[in-house]
Design a protein that fits this description.
mainly alpha; rod-shaped; 90 residues
């Protein structure tokens, strides 16, 4: 009976020591929090920059394609108009 009581006391003390030491340890210092926040901000800025670059590239390609299409259509219509005038003058 006495050894059972000793084991119970010993296991209780051991459990209290392990639990207490894990609770007493600081989670993260203020300096580490600031460093993490700075890294998160840097990563967010990189993501934003990449998204901006991608969007600008897509927009630039779309503008180039549309401009080229309009120029060709204008040239085609000008040629058609010139052909009509030439037909009427002959």
């Amino acid at each position: 009976m006495k050894s059972l009581k000793n084991r119970l006391v010993l296991s209780t003390v051991l459990l209290a020591t392990l639990t207490g030491s894990s609770l007493a340890m600081p989670q993260q210092s203020a300096g580490e929090d600031m460093k993490d926040a700075g890294n998160a901000t840097k990563d967010a800025a990189k993501d934003t920059g990449r998204a901006t670059k991608k969007t600008a590239k897509k927009t630039g390609h779309a503008v180039k394609k549309t401009t080229k299409k309009v120029v060709h259509q204008g040239a085609k219509k000008t040629k058609e108009g010139a052909d009509k005038v030439e037909d009427k003058t002959n």
